[in-house]
Amino acid sequence: RRFANMAGTGMRAIARNVSVAGFRPFQSATRCMSSASAEMLEEAQEKFKNHPLCFHNFPVQDIKFQVGSHFVTKKPFPQVYFNNAERSGIMHLSPWALTQFSAFGEKGTLGQKKGYIQGDFYVDDPTEAEQQINLNLLPLNEIQSSNEEIVEYFDWLEQIRKKYILHLAENVQSYDTLRGKFGVLVGKDEEILRDMVSQICTPVVKTPMDQNEEPVTEKSYLPFRQKFYYKMKNSAMNPKIRCELDAEMQSKGYSRTHVPLHEYESGKEIPLSNARILPGDLVSIQSNITCQLYNIGGNVGASLRKTMKNVAVIKPASDRSSYESPYAY
Hints:
This protein is an alpha+beta fold. The chain has helices at 11-18, 38-50, 148-170, 176-182, 190-200, 244-251, and strands at 3-5, 63-69, 76-82, 90-93, 97-103, 130-136, 206-208, 221-227, 229-231, 254-256, 261-263, 269-270, 282-296, 299-314. The protein starts with a strand and ends in a 15-residue tail after the last strand.
């Protein structure tokens, strides 16, 4: 399925589409609110707004991109900073939003059908499996007409992407990956150069196209996806084993990059064996924004990576440990 590039589309228009009376594109997305009272929802939203990692505390005008170096190759590589921070990346919290789709927990997408590939192809390699969460724009309950916070968050991410595109276009000669593809355009037509760079920079927000090739903005969603098994740097590492699959993968030299799932009300972590996120669950995700720039077999691309650090969910937890969520303060 093709998706529209939302970089030039106002997210306010999406909000208006979402609030149309009677609109229910994802019926299951209102399921969870039967177990979350209006009081709890109001409290959760207030805690988000007052949290130091709330995305509102990172205005776009104070976010900057610089030519840095890749942590492995040491070659020039784009880095993103907030103000004068010494460390790159934008660690932040997303607002509470409804989950459209999720493959999260012990096995993630392992055993599931691969994306949009035609035919019966399944993820059968744990090193290729991912944790996936898609957030949509729908109101958090039937009382609200729209989820303004998530609309503003979508727009915030796209504004950061625009700054990234501008940085790449202005620094083509600094990056080998871009110089080979766009070097001939440098110093000629800056508008065409920016447009060409924009085409290789993956949109942060995904918007499906209808049968007439028109964007269905009310079905826009924000995907979070990342692999969770990586090759251990040295055999002396002794990562925590949380399940049988972890033990099996460790014997092969892989360790899990764990993304804790916290139950909002108690602030405790839900054990990996019980970690589930269903369509319609309310979640707030702590993630770190970093840059991606690559050339894979001649396929040059760029994007903003959103690395999940932990997830808070509003739902009952059958078992809880001593881990605290970012809201437990």
